[in-house]
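Researcher: Good morning. I'm working through a list of sequences from a screen, and I'd like to move beyond sequence-only analysis. For each chain I'm collecting a predicted structure so we can compare shapes side by side. This is the next one on the list. No need for commentary yet; just the structure.
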Amino acid sequence: MGVAPTAHGGTPAPERHKGVTGPKGFKAAGVAAGIKESGALDLALVVNEGPGQAAAGVFTTNQVKAAPVLWSQQVLKERKLHAVVLNSGGANACTGPEGFQDTHATAEKVAEVLDVGAIEVAVCSTGLIGERLPMDALKAGVEKAAQELDATDLSGLNAATAVMTTDTHPKQSWQDHPDGWSVGGFVKGAGMLSPNMATMLSVITTDAVIDGDALDAALRATTAKTYDRLDVDGGTSTNDTVLVLASGASGVTPTAEQFADVLTAVAKDLVKQLQGDAEGVTKEVAITVNGALTEAEAVVVAKTVAEDNLVKTALFGSDPNWGRIAMAVGRSQATVDQHKLGIAINGVTLFADGHKAADRSEADLSGRDVDIVIDLNLGDGTATVLTTDLSHGYVEENSAYSS
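Model: Good morning. Structure tokens for this chain:
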């Protein structure tokens, strides 16, 4: 999968040839359990062999939550996980009490083959909403995955592959620290992406020595700046889950700042990969809002622009239509003064102080990357949200996803 480019300031960026098995103390597997009719890999298992088992999770804010989310939220109250089992090919959402029983049975099967407690097993599912999972196939898949557990880069990649739905390729990232510890992870998601903690699942591992409460605080802070700043289509999934597990196998205890830096770097790289593989994407768009009254208001403006279909279709047509952006800014719930508003696209200021500042033809949108900067000039709040265009491909893929 190659190596990610060098990050800003000369610091090596996370590498993409490793993922959850990059940190010491972790094994993984990705197998074909027969959940998908295609026969593709569809079940992943990630195991923390310790010596520590600290863990934390962040989940969807959607009020309609899938059974695996409800289960994993419960078990993570103990801030401890021994394993995570994930399946694609079915979301196990809106499946009633029977669906929750299926999730419980899945955790119990993992507990049985690993000789641990079910309360130490998180469960994640992704796919079509509303259908029960084929439990015989899933349980057999758990046994198969347990037999294939390994700590190699390939096993981590197989796990990342097994959770894909409409993704076109697996997404993983890993970064080490000079002191001898590292963070690695994988993510899946291509549509229904507007995390409020996208359909998105992510598992992150670290061999740093860190307790569950500190892990939880770091994950929540990181999520707010990374996963929550991607908005492909405004759809917050029923299954969104981000988990982080710490083995402590490095024997090194980083400072809170050191851990936050590496965790955020890996999460940012995973989110950038999500953006680049979004359904039907032809433009990768960064919307930066400066000068808002607060950071929260900057996020509101950026997300309103990111989700606006008129803006997104203009971007698909490579049209620097700043008027549509101004419209979206104005309809947001943030404080806006049109006479102080400025809009720049790919480095060209097209609108400033309430009036046209340049001909929009001066902004070149012929490439894949689009940088939109919105200046509210009201305060110090700033935020960047990543999004994509609305293309024929997105509509075709989502209209054909399921009958």
